[in-house]
Amino acid sequence: MDSKKTTPPNKLGFNRGSWTAAEDKILLDYVAAHGVGKWGKVPKTTGLNRCSRSCRLRWLNYLRPDIKRGNISEDEEDLIVRLHNLLGNRWSLIAGRLPGRTDNEIKNYWNTVLQKKVKVKSINDRIKCKSSTRRTEPSTPLINEHGSCTGKERIEAVLINEDEMLDASSSLSVGDRDVFEQLASFDTDRLWPRSIFDFEFFFEQDAGVWGGDDSLASVVWW
DNA sequence: AATTGCGCCAACCGCTATATA
DNA sequence: CTATATAGCGGTTGGCGCAAT
Predict the structure, then answer these.
(1) What domains are defined for chain A?
(2) Per residue in A8-38, pLDDT tens?
(3) How many Å does it take to go from CA A78 to C1' B3?
(4) What pTM was estimated for this model as a whole?
């Protein structure tokens, strides 16, 4: 049906991978004639070589007439963040509050865009919270919404604590992540007792080490 | 111009809950 | 009551397009 299809059929011989326009039309015609549901009957009655689950998903996430197309608005984004705070990864519940959006779309948007934004905001908030112990104020925000560092004092890594090290690295840009991985391989026990490993910044500046009055807030000049 | 790396997102998979025969 | 089918959910995968090298 489609020479470009690269995903092999499943165990039962049903097509997998992206849907073609012709397949969509068959499914739309089926729904127009028989209504939504009974997806298992689709291949038998239409000859469409797709399993029931694939048909259902295609309808719910793409062919449904009430699907909203286009970018997620700022209002929607704000709502997703607030609902996620409230509900966690309950994507279908969250999607239920956003008319025309699917759980899959919201899950994807969270995983690719919002998770990063929320993390960066959290890091910036925590940096701001500790900034009174700094000798000189950094350009702010230290990390922009893309996870890249801004201003003269480009952050090489932000280590919140032992457990969050990898998380912090995932919010940094690619180049930063390379540096982070080098930093992560350091023998941190020798550099700092773990108890003060709570809040270190690495800046692309003259080498040197400075610890603020608060022992939990050390700044390491790179 | 060709290759590589990466982000995005559609689709799949495993699992559970519910409905139906 | 049991077996099977269907629906629903959330985590994960993999193809595609594009930017960087």
Answers:
(1) 1-65 (1.10.10.60), 74-115 (1.10.10.60), 119-221 (no CATH)
(2) 666 667 888 888 888 889 988 888 888 888 8
(3) 39
(4) 0.64
